[in-house]
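Fold it.
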Amino acid sequence: MASALAGLKREVPICADESAHTADGLAALRDRYDAVNIKLDKTGGLTGALAMAAEAQRLGFKTMVGCMLATSLAMAPATLVAQSADWVDLDGPLLLARDRPHGLKYVDGCVSPPTAALWG
């Protein structure tokens, strides 16, 4: 229960994941979390994710951009939000047996945006 985190002293930052879905609910989490995990699937897409990132930063949260299990086509817009994030975890395509052609590139722990060919 998230309320148990209110006022808790901690050495390691605690990141809200399932407790944070949109920008509207972030203010209520300020005394419970240090960071929020922004996932495009939870925010309703790129517009919602950008709004959530802006509000999180305005409220003093660190931000993480995460993902659900999905192809590079779903992950590519998240790379825009990731540019201002403290942490990025966009490994969804790596967990699939097969990704879309022309997907994101992963080299030495870094992810690069796709080429225009991904969009078809």
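The chain has one domain: 2-119.
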